[in-house]
Amino acid sequence: MAAAYDSNNIFAKILRGEIPSKKVHESAHSLAFLDINPLAPVHVLVIPKGAYVDFDDFSARAPDAEIADYVKAIGDTARKVGVDADGYRLLSNCGANANQEVPHLHVHIFGGRMLGRMLKRDGE
Ligand code: 5GP
Known about the structure:
124 residues; alpha+beta; HIT family, subunit A; five-stranded antiparallel beta sheet; 3 helices; 24% helix; 20% strand; binds guanosine-5'-monophosphate
């Protein structure tokens, strides 16, 4: 189960307009913006506008309309930044084992180059 939502996290501040971000896409319940420290030529973050800690929290509590909007926003964003033709990776870190840094649900969209393996194997 996810921890309680911290309304002072960085993405909550971006949603409130308290800190700037480079917006890529916006819908009724979702926002997409460039990652500040990109790990690929295309690195975009897509977040729900609602206060959800991670995927576990979102899938348990969000109304269907917000879930549908979020899934569509992820696909729309990928097409908008042009990674649909060559392929891309979606990744969402959820909790401690995934090293989630910002406690507001976000899906990373990576693209623009060959991305390699999904995870390192032990010993690599
Ligand atoms: P996580 O490890 O939680 O999945 O990833 C958090 C991501 O948020 C990182 O890729 C990091 O670069 C990004 N990030 C952290 N602070 C900011 C910020 O203030 N603005 C933006 N645009 N991205 C941020």
